[in-house]
Amino acid sequence: MAPGGPTARRRRRWLVTVAVAVAAVICLIAAFSAGSRAHAELTRKPTAAELSTAAALGVASRWQRWTAGQIFPARLSYTTELLTQETAQRAGIAPGYGCAAALDVPVAVTARRYGCRAALRASYVDQLGGVVYTVGVLAFPSPPAAGHFIGHYQASQSPVSGLRALALPGTGAAAFTDSARQAASAQQDGPYVVLTVAGYADGRAAAATDERRASLFDPATQLAAQIGMPLTEPVTVRCATPEWSC
Q1: How do residues 106-153 score in pLDDT, each as one tens digit?
Q2: Using a CB cutoff of 8 Å and minimum separation of 24, what contacts does 92-100 make?
Q3: Which of the listed residues 54, 145, 154, 176 has the most CB atoms within 10 Å of its CB?
């Protein structure tokens, strides 16, 4: 029989049919396998490493999720140099959160280098109405980034530069401008750096102050600690709650 006869043609059609069927089965197996893997990935429980990463992101994003009033409480207690317990009242909160607007230019450049995401500020007036404290919370992507910033800050800044004073018209902090800054402090809390500047509520310039009483401004670090510590409290990831997608 000739090579191109009916039997040969039937054989070729049979071989093509078998090849197509095999290819279809292979595709089905691959699709099922991919679907199974995707389903397993979607339904599996998160690993310990993934939970840890999510918790760290939860802390680092707290500045976005909390209201300004949560970050800066209306009242903060402090201990004076005479060991008496007093209360500082919040005069107001800055409306913006740009890093450049809240910092002196050299500090803003350093903050931008290490990824500063936001700078939140509020001013407090001490119980006697004589001292103003501006507290600034700088948010960085991670604790190492915040650590790099504060290391540079502490090594290069003058005693009263860094955070810009927040003068709030119509409040006890109305006269507290940058020239009135008498003292400054800085501390790191996880991915955050809390800066403070303090001075007299009457706005007297640091250069015009003959007698420096640093102890008057010491409560600034106490206020900073009360603002910074809650921001770094551990986050618990609960997959069953609407807040988390696990």
Answers
A1: 999 999 999 999 999 999 999 999 999 999 999 999 999 999 999 999
A2: 92/122, 92/123, 92/166, 92/168, 92/171, 92/173, 93/68, 93/69, 93/120, 93/121, 93/122, 94/120, 94/121, 94/122, 94/166, 99/138
A3: 176
- Contacting residues for 115 by C-beta, under 8 A, at least 6 apart: 140, 141, 145
Nearby residues of 150 by Cβ (< 8 Å), 6 or more positions away = 186, 187, 188, 193
CA atoms 18, 22, 24, 25: torsion sign: positive
Six token digits for residue 220? 């600034």
Q: Return the amino acid letter for 59.
A: V
Place of tokens 């050299």: 106
Pair 82, 213: CB distance under 8 Å: no
